[in-house]
Every structure is written in structure tokens, then in C-alpha cells.
DNA sequence: CGGAATCCGGTCGGATACTG
DNA sequence: CAGTATCCGACCGGATTCCG
């Protein structure tokens, strides 16, 4: 008995939402509370596949299998889960054509499009600074390793 | 024996890096490969605490305990882990003052500052559209629940 | 004070099998 | 074709303990 841990697998998970109203000033107060809306979408774009899906759908409408083939590496389970979340958030529109074999198409909503645009700023930043980051990491690791040797 | 699963806990995790060089055109090709640099920093900003730390350090330099108290909810373990990652990426500078009791201060690097600026665009987007998202979710859940009842 | 090491539960996501 | 249902390993992050 003792609460089946599969609950997270399939459950809709209503989520309490926790309003956490902002004082509209204080531009640095948004992130001091953990379960705000910011976190909600951050968890979405931070997850493993959402971004890929959004980016692909921003190019054109795609069917389930097309997405699956395009992403390559995603399991059908995670594709389904990801699409359902995006649909729930109003970022993706799901259209079922009642034919046999079924034909289901996914497209970005206007909201989803604006999100992708915003995300792109982050991508640009990353591409611009990836060398600095890589260098910093290499330097850090080199130093850490050297330190480890002296400790022996 | 069989590979201790704690490896991810403390190990430095060198990470193969997987260069995955871009063709500089194709603005929508960045995200078709999964382990690119974009993913690297996305995993960072997508994790539970990095963003909070960055935002707080953007206001002013803080000590370990100050950060811990300010964030409230973070474990000392995760604060340490998060800070080490940010330091490794060159986003945060760690300064140890050799006094007794030890005094360690953390501050954002210029690179970290530019990242925070970029992130803010995402925050603005979220605050602007949180109502749409919340409404979409409520609608989705309402519809799903209604559908579940007819199925019974 | 500022960590490091260990233990451990909960969750994320992959593999597989089955369905309309 | 487009999913749903189950099972299960891997990892993330919290709690606790110990250390310089």
C-alpha cells in the first residue's frame, strides 16, 4: 500500500499554484520565493526535451512521429509527457484529425512563439560566452586536480 | 562494488564536452543536438538553486551563511554544490579570507552579471504571461477532469 | 564559519508491452 | 499512427554527521 510512487508518472498533478503575489517594484524579489510562476516555466524550459520540441515546432507544424524522428533520442513516453505539459501551459496546440490511421498535429501557439523568441536570447548569450565558460571549467578542473595530487 | 551510485554526489564529473561545432548559419539547429553548450548552461539555470544564488549575488557580495539565510529552504549541501558549479563555470568568484573564523565571500563575475541580465528577459516574459498560462492550465485541467467523469 | 562525506527517499526518464 | 500502462534504474537533492 503506502502510496504507490507511480503517482508522478501518470497523474495530472493539479499543483496548488501558490499565488505569491509580487510587489510590482523590487526587480530582485521575484526569485526569493521558490514556487512562483517563474519557477514553473523555468522547470519547463529546464527539463530535458521541452526546448527541443518548441524549437522544432517554431519552424513548422509537425506530427507526433515526425517529432519523434526529428528529435532522435527521445522516448515516445517523454515525447507524450512533454507535449501534454506544453499543451497544458498553452504553448502548444494539439489537433486531432479523425481519420484512420489517426493524424495528430502539433503547432506552437502565439504564446509559445513569444517564448521561443525570448529563449533565443539565452541561446545567443551561450554561444557568445561558451568559450569563456569552457576555459573557466578547464582551469577549475586543472587546479582541482593539481590540488588533489598534493594532498596525496 | 558495482559502481557506487554516489559518484554523481561528490565527483567533479569531468564531462566529455562533446564539441558539436555549429554551422554558424541555421538559427534553429542549435537545439537538435542534446549535449551542446546550450544544454550545459540550460541545465545550470534550470536547476533548483543557481538562479536564486545569481540573483542575490547580483545585488551584492555575500558570505556563505548570508546566502544560506537569505535563500531559506536550501540545504548547506546544495548551496555548496551550486556555488561550486557556478564557480567552475566562471559565473561566481570565491574569495577566502584567511582569518579565524574563516570568512568566505562570493560575488558575481562580469560574466555572471551578463547572464543575470539575459535571464531577466525570461522573468519579464513569465510575469507578463503568467495569467495566460494559469488560465490555460485551469482550462486544461477542467476539461481533463470532465472527460474523466464521462469515461466512468 | 564553511564546508566534506555519507545515507537515503523521491522523482525523472528510458525500455518494453499493449491498445484503438 | 499515436498513444497508455508498468516496471525499474539513475540521479537529484534533503538530513545528518563530522571536520579544520
UniProtKB/TrEMBL annotation, chains A, B:
InterPro entries assigned: HTH_HxlR, WH-like_DNA-bd_sf, WH_DNA-bd_sf
Gene3D superfamilies xref list: Winged helix-like DNA-binding domain superfamily/Winged helix DNA-binding domain
Keywords: DNA-binding, Transcription, Transcription regulation
Positions of the UniProt region annotated as Disordered: 1-20
Domain (HTH hxlR-type) ranges: 36-134
Name of the molecule in the record: HTH hxlR-type domain-containing protein
Taxonomic lineage of the native organism: Bacteria, Bacillati, Actinomycetota, Actinomycetes, Kitasatosporales
